[in-house]
Amino acid sequence: MTQRIDDYALIGDLQTAALVGRDGSVDWLCLPRFDSAACFAAILGDENNGHWQIAPKGATTCTSRRYAEDSLVLETYWETRTGTVKVVDFMPQRDRAPDLMRIVEGISGSVEMSAVLRLRFDYGSIVPWVRRSDGHRVAIAGPDSVWLRSEPHVKTWGQQFSTCSSFTVGAGERVAFVLTWHPSHEPRPELIDPHEALELTLADWREWSARCTYRGPHREAVMRSLITLKALTYAPTGGIMAAPTTSLPEELGGVRNWDYRACWLRDSSLTLGALLAAGYVEEAAAWRDWLLRSVAGDPADLQIMYGPAGERRLPETTLPWLRGYADSAPVRTGNAAVDQFQLDVYGEVMDSLHRAREAGIPPERHAWNLQLSLLGFLESTWREPDEGLWEVRGPRRHFTHSKVMAWVAADRAVRTLESDPSLPGDAARWRAMRDEIHAQVCARAYDPARNTFTQSYGSKELDAATLLIPQVGFLPPDDPRVVGTVDAVRAELTHDGFVRRYSVDSAGAVDGLPGQEGTFLVCSFWLADALWLTGRPDEARELFERLIALRSDVGLLAEEYDPATGRQLGNFPQAFSHIGLVGTAFALAAGEAAG
């Protein structure tokens, strides 16, 4: 039976990540990077597409699990009739080669364990050649080489193109397994002591978590979200992935399955805000530097997303040999939305760099010239229709949120020049642009009969992104048009109190796609923010409490939630959802502190 998406836990080494199920199986892992081909892809197919299970013999699901302290070290407990055992899963921050380590520790009694390793390179399509070397199992196919060893040595045997083992652990006994990847043309990396690596990994996370300055309500949920954002950071560059997975569906059995293993500019300003608010200035500075490198070049070539090192080419393809999670096909890699025109990204870049400057992050000398170049391009293009924040695959429209973010770009330029008149630039010019955009949005995106901003000019559809209008400063929270928009979104876009992104019909009139999707978690956090800003704190707190209750048993959130089935949907865990949680928690805490 397919496990629920939220039955998985995340482990990683800040360059890639794995998903571990409640059955003790690692069903997703891409090596050596987040966006590399997976060697375990069972979550998108079945066990023959690659997985690594360690569990008590005959057991189907664990008794309980948790993260050790404020870390990404997963502890899974199994209580059997003969004893209790713990499996510790983690990936130490690497010097060179990635390692996946699994330590089995006896707690009481005696437990017979079973392990099955099925390596399938290139997203579950390639069965490697496996041999023995120096007591290790070595799997090689093309550019990939993986070594498996155990301490103490555990006998293994081959069966149905897999590596199997059986062993018993008693109270106080430990058996460690280490899986190491390296390019097949290079020699095996030096061996790492798994127990020492565990202590160092815990110490690394302990030191990082201690830097968090948040002391408000629901600190555990906020800390877990911040750890998740850190786990999705590609350490060599500072880029933050939207999610570590591809093609986990927005509708079970549907086609809304996308690859989120990339860095979206739409997340940038909110990511910066979350990191800075929690005291993580170094991470915010690294993200800012990634942003500057990635968007450098012709402003006309600005993309909505990039690879973890700023790569621009992310071609979308399908993998027909994978049936998809819960038969949700096609499975995709890459994302064709990379070629879309989205006006809002210019506002997001400008806002991100403005936030960084306000936070005291030393500005790069070339950053302002880059911003002026982006503004010059935006000045000539903001009147054009685009694909919008949600990357619709229908026709281009004059999306309200896109125009509001174009206003943000001009507004942040004006603010920067007002705070530092020594910088080059024409404040009057950008002020005039800001005023023109504002007047057009208020005239063409607002429906006076319904007292709400709509999704696009002249449309009747609503869009949860309009909830951001007071957050970005386009209008004050007490403006009747803002209050009306919040009320309209609540009335028309909510399902059991949670918010959908926009109206979706079976014909795909808005986004060009068939089928439905779940409620969008970050949009629900935006509603909580909007309720707070518009003077409804009790309703904001109640919604926030309901949202954090949706988290999995280890505190993780996917992209969407289906109130009808009580299941999380979409790629997992989703940075945008955790950014929303952190942002709302800080807003509510700040409001309460202010009285």
In short:
This protein has about 600 residues and is of the alpha+beta class.
Give the tags:
alpha+beta, 13 helices, 595 residues
> Rg, please?
25 Å
Could you describe the largest sheet, including whether it forms a barrel?
A: 15 strands, antiparallel
Through-space gap between termini: 50 Å
The portion of residues assigned to helices is: 25-40%
Structural class: alpha+beta
Q: Tell me the number of helical segments per DSSP (H or I, 4 or more residues long).
A: 13
Residue windows where pLDDT falls under 50 for at least 5 positions: none
Q: Could you tell me the number of beta strands?
A: 28
Shape: globular
Beta content comes to: 15-25%
Mean pLDDT: 94
Structure description:
The protein is α+β, with helices and mostly antiparallel strands. The chain has a 15-stranded antiparallel β-sheet that branches. The longest helix has 20 residues, at 400-419. The protein is globular and about 75 Å long. The N and C termini lie far apart (50 Å).
Give the arrangement of secondary structure elements.
Blueprint: E1 9-12, E2 17-20, E3 25-30, E4 38-40, E5 51-56, E6 64-67, E7 74-79, E8 83-90, E9 99-118, H1 121-124, E10 129-133, E11 136-141, E12 144-151, E13 156-158, E14 163-170, E15 174-183, H2 194-210, H3 219-231, E16 233-234, E17 239-240, E18 263-264, H4 268-277, H5 281-295, E19 305-306, E20 317-318, E21 332-333, H6 344-358, H7 367-381, H8 400-419, H9 427-444, E22 446-447, E23 452-453, H10 480-493, E24 494-495, E25 498-499, E26 519-520, H11 521-533, H12 537-548, E27 560-562, E28 567-569, H13 575-593
Antiparallel strand pairs: 1-2, 2-3, 3-4, 3-5, 5-9, 6-7, 7-8, 8-9, 9-14, 9-15, 10-11, 11-12, 12-15, 13-14, 16-17, 18-19, 20-21, 22-23, 24-25, 26-27, 27-28
Helix pairs in contact: 3-13, 4-5, 4-6, 4-13, 5-6, 6-7, 6-8, 7-8, 8-9, 11-12, 11-13, 12-13
